[in-house]
Write a structure and sequence with these properties.
By secondary structure, the protein is an alpha+beta fold. It contains 3 helices and 4 strands, in the order E-E-H-H-H-E-E. Helix 1 packs across helix 3.
């Protein structure tokens, strides 16, 4: 099974966790999502994953999703969290 998305017709391969994170962000497009909310919904409370993992995986997604495009889709709102917007 492949975890792949396309942007402007360009295929982007994702790991299962990156895909899960992107899917979570996309389903809530336009909403600011805190690290804690992302951790609990994407990783689950009992995984022992720290909030820094969210930052790391957002970085991975940015490199794959926004690389080569003038318009960024993934945005950081300092002190609040992350969001995807058009």
């Amino acid at each position: 099974r492949k975890y792949q998305v396309k942007r402007a017709g360009k295929a982007i391969e994702l790991t299962p966790q990156e895909f899960k994170l992107l899917k979570f962000l996309m389903r809530r497009k336009g909403n600011v999502l805190s690290r804690e909310m992302i951790l609990s919904r994407v990783w689950g409370y009992d995984t022992g994953v720290q909030s820094r993992a969210v930052d790391v995986y957002i970085g991975y997604l940015r490199k794959k999703i926004d690389k080569g495009f003038k318009k960024r889709l993934i945005h950081t709102l300092r002190g609040f969290g992350y969001m995807i917007k058009d």
